[in-house]
From TrEMBL:
<dbReference type="GO" id="GO:0004497">
    <property type="term" value="F:monooxygenase activity"/>
</dbReference>
<dbReference type="InterPro" id="IPR050766">
    <property type="entry name" value="Bact_Lucif_Oxidored"/>
</dbReference>
<keyword id="KW-0560">Oxidoreductase</keyword>
<keyword id="KW-0503">Monooxygenase</keyword>
<feature type="domain" description="Luciferase-like">
    <location>
        <begin position="10"/>
        <end position="314"/>
    </location>
</feature>
<dbReference type="InterPro" id="IPR036661">
    <property type="entry name" value="Luciferase-like_sf"/>
</dbReference>
<dbReference type="InterPro" id="IPR011251">
    <property type="entry name" value="Luciferase-like_dom"/>
</dbReference>
<dbReference type="Pfam" id="PF00296">
    <property type="entry name" value="Bac_luciferase"/>
</dbReference>
<dbReference type="GO" id="GO:0005829">
    <property type="term" value="C:cytosol"/>
</dbReference>
<dbReference type="GO" id="GO:0016705">
    <property type="term" value="F:oxidoreductase activity, acting on paired donors, with incorporation or reduction of molecular oxygen"/>
</dbReference>
<protein>
    <submittedName>
        <fullName>LLM family oxidoreductase</fullName>
    </submittedName>
</protein>
Amino acid sequence: MSITNHTGIEIGIYTLADIGPDPLTGKTITPKQRMNEMIQAAKLADEAGLDVLGVGEHHRLDYASSSPAVILAAIAQATKHIKLTSTTSVLSTLDPVRLFEDFATLDLLSDGRAEILAGRGAFIESFPLFGYSTNDYDELFTEHMELLLQLNKNERVTWSGNFRSPLRNAEISPRPIQKKIPIWIGVGGTPESAVRAGKFGVGMGLAILGGDPLRFKPLVDLYRKTGMEAGHSSEALKVAVTGHAYISETTQQAKDEFFPYYSNYWTYVNRQRGMGSRMSRADFEHMASPNTALLVGSPQQIVEKVLHQHELFGHKRFLAQVDIGGLPYHKVAKNIELLATKVVPVIKKATSK
């Protein structure tokens, strides 16, 4: 069911590989099954003509993906066309040389499809794991980003900073197929992050998980203004938007089917963050209402929401997270199919003008 269409905005899916119990059966799948299903979903997305596939990084037993580059390398062998990105790589606690070389290797394995979305991460478990202090949260990210951009530009690098040993004419190998690996910064909602992405002149990936998307417009404007003032071209200043999505034939059906899983997802994410709150059906109905960013509904409802966001942000890419809360694989596959066949063609047409 290929619908490859290169006009209009890029549309894809991403996963954080959370491993939660299915709220309807109580069963939790193994990390091995989760991995197999991620590869199946990637194949399906590729065959359906989606543009991008992302895999996130977490260092916890309730997630299956501590190494996006390794998972994406496996996916590269099972797919042909889809771009392969991290969503996100926790750059504060990754060695930039290791990260770059891993994704340059992925670029060779995938015939030039690798990208990096770097962020500071929603969790901080990687800091003690790799011997870093959360006191250096911002400084680590900035320094590592500066080095990553140099590695992407030059095959030999001389560099020194505060958090790792200096490089003296170091050979950075292998070089990717692409002239440069596309690099983005993931932004949650702070003006500082938007300014940083603009100054660096890299793409900005905006995570909009709920609420009125209008509140993110100042961040996009700030990013573009900062980037232009720093001398970067408007082509370099690309915006991507990511969000949670669940699609069914009707909006009511989508809400009825997705509520147990979405409530379940936030129950365990909040528990991971030390909060005990549960989502009520009324809360969910409010979160999924027509003027919000949560993409739950019929294909038409999803199209309207994505196009509304596009009017606000003029973004070049949209990624949907379609596999959270213990959702069984057959529902994930149906989600991908409806996205590719009913939503993508309409959005591509509307945004290719």
